[in-house]
Amino acid sequence: MSKIRLYTFGGYSEIGKSMSAIETDNGIVIVDMGGNMDELIDYQTSHPNITIQDTSELISRNIIPNDSEFFKEKGKNVVAIVISHGHLDHAWATPFLAHKYKAPIICTPFTAEIIKKLNKDFKGERLNLKIVPTGGLINIKGIQIKLVPITHSIPQASLVLIKSQNKNILYACDWKFDLHPLISSPVDFAELKRLGNLGIDVLISETTRIEEKGSTFSESVAENMIEDALIKSKDSKNIFFTTFSSHIARLRSVIKIGRKLGRKILVIGRSIDEYFSAAINSGVVERRELAEVIKEDRFVKKAMKRLKEGGFLVIGTGHQGEPGSFMSKLAINHYSYALSKDDTVIFSSQTIPTKVNIANRSMLQNAIMDSGAKIYDNVHVSGHGSREDHKKMLELIRPKIYIPAHGGIEKQVEGIKLAQELNYKLNLNTFLIGDNVHFDIE
Ligand SMILES: [Zn+2]
Question: Confidence class of residue 86 from pLDDT cuts 50, 70 and 90?
C-alpha cells in the first residue's frame, strides 16, 4: 500500500522559513525553501555581505531551514524542488540549499526571476531552474506536479498539486480568494472544485489570517482606498507612499492613480527596482505601467532636492520602519527635504507584528508625527484568506486529511477548530504539526 510521509523544516509553527518535503513511493518533492526574515534582518545589520559560504552559519542562526540530516539520509530520493511563490519566506533560502540536490527547481517565470537575482547576490552555484507557466504541469519520474494559479499579494503564486500513483497532495501556502485581482486572473472556484473531485488525500494550507472574521477583500478594494487617500491629499505639497516592494499590483495602482491626478512620480529603492525588473522580464506587466526607479543614495539625494517645488508622489521602501530604508532616512532628515505639516505619508501596509517591526515602526511613526505631516495608515488589504475563505477552501477541496500550517500554534489551532466545525476530528483527519518532524499518512 502506498504511503505519504511529510517532513517539515519550517513554516508550520512559525511564519517564515517555509520548507516541506513530501515523500511518496515514487520519490520526494520538496516544496519551498524560505528564510526567516526577522532573524535575517537582525543578522544583516552586522553581516551585510552574505554568500552561500555562510550556509552553515545561517542554519545555526535559524535563518534558513536545517535540512542537513534529511539530505544525508534522503537527498538522493528528491526528484523535484517546487517554489510556490516569490515571497522571501518561501524562496529566500533556495540558493543556499537547492544546488546540492540533483533535482530541478520548478517555479513560475516571476518566481524564477527572484531566485536568479538572489543566487547572483549570494554568489551561488548554477541552479537547475525548470520554469513552467502558471497552471503548468510537469511529469518527473512518475510524479505529476501542477502549479495551480492562485491569487495572493505577489504575481504568479501557485498552489502545488502533487500526484503520485494514487495519492494527491495539495500544498496551499500562501493564498487569498480574490475575485477582482488587478494583474492576474480571478480565483477559479471551478478549478478548485475540480481538484476536490480528484480526491485530495492531504491539504496543507496556510493559516496566517485565519483568525480574521469574514472574507479578505480584493486587491481592487486596496486600489480604491489608495485613490481615496490620494484625492483627499490633493492639497498636500508632496505625498510619500510606502508598501511591500514585491507587491507589483499595488505599486502599479499607486503609479497609475498618481499619474491620473497629475502628480510627478518618484520611485526610490533598490528592492523595488529588483521586483520591477522581475515583473517586466517575466511579462507580468509592461515597462510603461511602472516607472523608473532611483537606487543609488547620491541620485536619491539629488532627486529629493526637487521636492521643494511640490506636486510629487514619492514611492519608497520602509513600510515596516526598517532602518536604512527610504522612509526611515526621510524621517531622520537624511535628505535635504524635511517633512512638514504640508506633506502626507501613506502606509499601504499593516505592521507585521514582530517585536523588531513594532519597535521600528513606532519610531518611524513618532518621527513623522513630530514633523507635523499627515499620516494615513493601513491603506491596505491582506494577501491572505480570512476565516470564511478557509472554510470555503475546505468545502471545495474536501481533503481526506487537513494540516493547517504557517502561523504558529494559535493560528494552527484556529484551523483545527474550523475543520472540526466541518466534522473533521483531531488526530484522525486533522493534525497539529510542528517544525522539524516527519509525519506518516497511510
Ligand atoms: Zn506569500
Answer: very high
